[in-house]
Amino acid sequence: MPGLRVPFLDLSRQYAELRDELVSSATRVLDSGRYILGPENEAFSAEFARMHGAPFCAGVASGTDALKLSLEAAGVGPGDEVALPALTFVATATVVSALGARPRFVDVEPDSLTMSPEDLERRITPRVKAVIPVHLYGLPARLDAILRIARSKGLAVVEDCAQSHGAVFAGKPVGSHGDFGAFSFYPTKNIGACGDAGAITAVDEARFAAVMLLRDCGRRPGARYDHIVASNHSRLDELQAALLRVKLPHLEEWTRQRRSAAARYTRGLQGLPVSLPPADPENGRHVYHQYVLQTPERDALAKSLEKRGVGSGIYYPMPLHRLEAYRNLGYTEGDFPEAERAAKEVLSLPMFSELRDDEIEAVIESVRAHFS
């Protein structure tokens, strides 16, 4: 559609659809006078746990805190190492550093761009205490192989589910396979709060109890001043919990819409010199937080789309070991070839559940026009 501008993301469309419900839920919380660890938090945690097939869930202040608290509950601390993919958002690594531990980077697979189990096995050292598989772009990592390696070495597994709400691997939702699942509700996620928010799912009651202590100043549940461990606090506030409760029942339909848009992209972009996202894993489901192409012409394609009024994004333009923050770890260019190649080639097309059919066709036409 010549002249049609397509935003990379437009959060205002979802708000417009849910405005009355969101305002009503916010008013309910404000009228209640309960703003921290109240009934909205409890209800949302139970509903989210049910949806993700996990017996336990705790709302926390952000996805970053969800990762950090999960690692801390797993016993990660100074002198330990944590294995994680070299291609992901930096927070997956910074939470490790914040605990005094060392990130142990692992290369990714060339098609899925999720953690390579084969490279994981090669890079594990005696100091590695935990593994963080990242379900990147909404596609589950190869959890069967990763879990097998981790369990054989007695390592905790924290699934980074920040981009994969509702994704499925081997018939089970992500966040219910490892010891913990760390979710983000940053506003741009498949289900987003109106600010920062996160959640931790867990399958083991004892480890979940550790999370509950750590998220609330080390306070014994139900007590006011009985602090039994030294900890900060990270709590999902009642206002965000209430807003998320409005959105949660829509997640399945939003996922269907994302998958429908992705299928149209895939049909429309066949035959071009680009690598398209992989299909669903067997008995699994990709939820398309991002629809990501890989092409050596990435930068030229992005400029071409911009000229045609089509938004795009790059996640991520630099692998973690090349960031200034982690140069002290001693890695050099060439240590993680697939992550390094991908950082030069990945390009995300517009992807959000409210994307219209004419906008999807305009994106397809613009990509094809570049290569023609």
Strand order of the largest sheet: 1-9-8-5-4-2-3
Distance between the termini: 16 Å
The oligomeric state of the chains shown is single chain
CATH names the topology of the largest domain as Aspartate Aminotransferase, domain 2
So, the CATH homologous superfamily of the largest domain? Answer: Type I PLP-dependent aspartate aminotransferase-like (Major domain)
How many helical stretches?
12
Rg to the nearest angstrom? 21 Å
Largest sheet: 7 strands, mixed
Order of helices and strands: HHEHEHEHEHEEEEEHHHEHHEH
List the defining traits of the structure above.
2 domains; single chain; Aspartate Aminotransferase, domain 2; 11 strands; alpha/beta; Aspartate Aminotransferase, domain 1; two-stranded antiparallel ribbon; seven-stranded mixed beta sheet; 372 residues; 38% helix
Protein model, in words:
This protein is an alpha/beta fold. It folds into two domains: 12-106 and 113-249, Aspartate Aminotransferase, domain 2 (3-Layer(aba) Sandwich), CATH 3.40.640.10; 251-371, Alpha-Beta Complex (Aspartate Aminotransferase, domain 1). Helices cover 38% and strands 12% of the residues. It has twelve helices and eleven strands. The protein has helices at residues 11-32, 39-51, 63-73, 91-98, 117-123, 143-152, 205-214, 238-247, 251-268, 298-307, 337-345, 357-371; strands spanning 56-60, 81-85, 102-106, 128-131, 156-160, 168-169, 172-173, 180-184, 198-202, 291-294, 346-349. The strands form three sheets. A seven-stranded mixed β-sheet has the order 1-9-8-5-4-2-3, sandwiched between helices. Helix 4 (91-98) links the parallel strand 2 and strand 3. Helix 3 crosses helix 4 (91-98), helix 3 (63-73) packs across helix 7 and helix 9 (251-268) runs parallel beside helix 12 (357-371). It is globular and about 70 Å long. The model has no long low-confidence stretch (mean pLDDT 96).
